[in-house]
Amino acid sequence: MVEDPLATAACLQITREVGFDHLLQGDKPYTTACPLPFQADSVKTARDVTRTTLRDWGLADLSDDAALVVSELVTNAVRYAMYASGHREIQLLLMRVAPHVLLAVADPSDEVPRRKEPDFISENGRGLYIVETYSQCWGWDPLATGGKAVWALFNAGF
After folding, report:
1. Contact 46/36 with Cβ under 8 angstroms?
2. Cα gap 105→133, rounded to integer Å
3. Which sequence spans correspond to the domains of the chain?
4. Where is each Histidine kinase/HSP90-like ATPase domain found (predicted)?
């Protein structure tokens, strides 16, 4: 399927206009927000929430790729944002904006995520490369309350 760049831009514009701070509050149609503690088992919880949410939305075909991407985003948040000042938790956000699904992980760190050239022999350093490979696009936005939301966009094919 050929992606419509205008649809992608519209989805990102809507997200930015509403603001990640507001979206993380949850209780919006086709939005799931889930707080996660700074611990390793949060990665499994995030994968489970992602798979369940996508299945409930009738988008189970996206669940493997989305769960992999969420795993990488939550792992990065646990690894790099744990000692940042502010909130003591991570927030997972899944949002359906036809024809897209947006996954975001918010953390209290203001450090900008940077993709490294992957070293396929090393045990780490491939996270954002994987996010870039499996999602349509990714990026990050600062939060008004401090910290950032790192997001990945998927085409849901509606």
Report:
1. yes
2. 18
3. 5-155
4. 37-136
Helix (H, G, I), strand (E, B) or coil at 112: coil
- Separation in Å, CA 76 to CA 29, 56, 58, 71, 154: 28, 27, 28, 9, 19
CATH C-level class of 5-155: alpha beta
Model pLDDT for residues 19-48, shown as the tens digit of each residue: 777 666 666 778 898 999 988 899 999 999
Q: Is residue 130 within a helix (H) or strand (E), and if so which, with residue range?
A: helix 127-134
**What residue spans of 3-126 are helical by DSSP H?**
5-18, 20-23, 42-56, 63-81
Distance (Å) of CA 44 to CA 34, 36, 65, 72: 13, 10, 14, 11
- Sole residue written with tokens 């519209």: 10
In DSSP terms, 34 is beta-bridged to 92
131 secondary structure, DSSP code:
H
C-alpha distances (whole Å) from 53 to each of 25, 30, 32, 128 are 17, 9, 7, 23
